[in-house]
Design a protein that fits this description.
With about 130 residues, the chain is mainly α. Helices cover about 60% and strands about 0% of the residues.
């Protein structure tokens, strides 16, 4: 229910810039998008090569597929309605959230995650 309220607020809001610093850390936590490969604290020699990295998140922290779809829709709204210069300080978080959405086991989340990536790349331009 809370995710739906946030989504509706973002749909009706003209400027999301002030909301981004508060919302992104919550989304990172909900999707466990901080260390997707689980190798941030491993020595360089022990890190797997790029072809061995995770392709699908097996046990997403947020259990509800409906909530994950709404989170993905929120990300699409954020990246499609916010100027890229306002998102610049949060690029790493946004990219990690979008990657986590695309690694989700539920198809609708993946589709919406790819829409968010597409909108983010359009916003970034060059």
């Amino acid at each position: 229910m809370a995710a739906l309220i946030v989504k509706e607020f973002f749909i009706r809001s003209d400027d999301l810039t002030l909301s981004i610093p508060y919302l992104l850390p919550i989304l990172v936590e909900k999707l466990n998008a901080d260390d997707l490969e689980g190798v941030d604290y491993m020595p360089e020699k022990m890190k797997p090569s790029s072809n061995q990295k995770a392709q699908v998140m097996i046990d997403p922290p947020e259990k509800s597929e409906a909530v994950r779809v709404i989170i993905a829709e929120i990300m699409t709204i954020i990246v499609s309605t916010t100027l890229f210069d306002c998102m610049r300080p949060y690029v790493d978080n946004i990219v990690n959230i979008c990657k986590a959405l695309c690694m989700d086991p539920y198809g609708e989340v993946i589709i919406e995650g790819t829409k968010a990536i597409s909108e983010f790349s359009k916003a970034g331009g060059d």
